[in-house]
Amino acid sequence: MVTFTVEDHDGNRQTVEAPDDMGLSLMEVLKASEYPVLATCGGMALCATCHVEILEGEDALGEATDVELDQLENLPEYFPTSRLACQVRISPLLEGAVIKLRGEDN
Amino acid sequence: MISTDICIIGAGPVGLFAVFEAGLLKMRCHLVDYLPQVGGQLSEIYPQKPIYDIPGYPEIKAQELVDNLMEQIKPFQPTFTLGERVEHLNKQADGSYIVVTNENTQIHAKVIVIAGGLGVFEPRKPALEKLDHFEGKGVAYMVKNPETFRNKKVVLAGGGDSALDWTIYLANVAERVTLVHRNETFRGAPDSAAKVFDLANNGKIDLILSANLKELGGNGKLSSVTLEGKNKEEIVIDADYLIPLFGLSPKLGPIADWGLSIDKNAIEVDTRDYSTGVERIYAIGDINTYPGKLKLILCGFHEAAIMMHSAFKYVYPDQKLSFKYTTVNGVNAF
């Protein structure tokens, strides 16, 4: 299991624990945790509605792919540590990370 | 006024297949969609992506499925209002409805089917003060008629293909085009990016990179756009129009105001026939919710078949419906 912190649109923080051996994406875990993540395209990096900002722990996650950057750069607002939650795998690299929801809620 | 048996709001795959199921029961359909083309998410977001869970198709590209659905419903001659958003449903004394769009198109229908997917695809808006104040008064999110911008000063913002394409097009129409992009490079089509850099190098357009929109100015109508540059400096540009092009995002939109029971942006329905709590209004596909709901195209197809059998009683109140396979009767065109 891996533990990280999620900050919602209102600034509330909550610790989330997720299995790191099931190939889940961060987007899937956020949705399963009932966070208001639209994820219109279902995880294909095509809609950017699961936009998150990695407030802490971004170095461990490495660079976004070109496909991911294509979507992020089209958003009206994005940040140096913006990622698409659907493209971030749940792995030990996320341990202790702080993730802020940025995408449109549903 | 357009008159039809059934008005389907949403021309995605489920809305399109609903036309087929209605047609088998001799009910005519008119479809309305805010997008300028049919296909919904499939055409707008992932036209070239393969889908693997459509029965009978081990693999089919999203746009190919939409094209096939259009072919399948052709015998039933559906009509379309595209590029318009349904704003109001006005109930009539006889129980039928008049559907009114944002362009004041009116459609009279005996039954309403909401097949709106995740809602209306609306433009993503930049976080700017007074943005709504200037909407329709200088701020536009799409180029409906390029002639609107002839001999005007136009600022476009964004770095995707839409921003590049419209910059190239409007360079020959507008008095002056300024393209604002937050980065130094474009990730859109390389050919388009090269054309934009050429236009800038030749003085045909103004290209401002590493800058963000900051403020809008004007008295009643837009007259300037202020940017924040790389070194936090302010850049003020005279502008008749600002066109932010940051893609589309689904919103529930006016559907939320129609008195339907909504749970987490989805319409609650009775799974016996996918009716909403309001008589003659049904909801099928991703827009509805019920215990066990799966947001799959094939589930929406199933819902379309069942709801159309329920809707029959409103279109033909004096007839009794008997179920028949298409292998018995075939597909009888209108």
UniProtKB/TrEMBL annotation, chain A:
BP GO annotations: P450-containing electron transport chain
Cofactor field: [2Fe-2S] cluster
Keywords recorded for this protein, A-Z: 2Fe-2S, Iron, Iron-sulfur, Metal-binding
Range of residues in the leader sequence: none
InterPro entries (alphabetical): 2Fe-2S_ferredoxin-like_sf, 2Fe-2S_ferredoxin-type, Adrenodoxin-like, Beta-grasp_dom_sf
UniProt KW Membrane keyword: no
Gene3D superfamilies in the cross-refs: 3.10.20.30
Domain 2Fe-2S ferredoxin-type: 1-105
Molecular function in Gene Ontology: 2 iron, 2 sulfur cluster binding; electron transfer activity; metal ion binding
CDD domains the UniProt entry points to: fer2
Transmembrane segments: none
Family label: Belongs to the adrenodoxin/putidaredoxin family.
Protein name per its UniProtKB record: 2Fe-2S ferredoxin
From TrEMBL, chain B:
Reactions performed catalytically: 2 reduced [2Fe-2S]-[ferredoxin] + NADP(+) + H(+) = 2 oxidized [2Fe-2S]-[ferredoxin] + NADPH
Residue stretches making up the FAD/NAD(P)-binding domain: 5-291
Binding residue positions for FAD: 33, 41, 46, 86, 121, 286, 327
EC code(s) of this entry: 1.18.1.2
Enzyme class, broadest EC rank: oxidoreductase
Single Gene Ontology MF annotation: NADP binding
Cofactors demanded by this protein: FAD
Family matches, as Pfam families: Pyr_redox_2 (PF07992)
Gene3D superfamilies referenced in this protein's UniProt entry, alphabetically: FAD/NAD(P)-binding domain
Keyword set, alphabetical order: FAD, Flavoprotein, NADP, Oxidoreductase
UniProt remark on cofactor binding: Binds 1 FAD per subunit.
Family from the record: Belongs to the ferredoxin--NADP reductase type 2 family.
Subunit-level organization: Homodimer.
Stored HAMAP family: FENR2 (MF_01685)
The protein, known as: Ferredoxin--NADP reductase
Origin species: Cecembia calidifontis
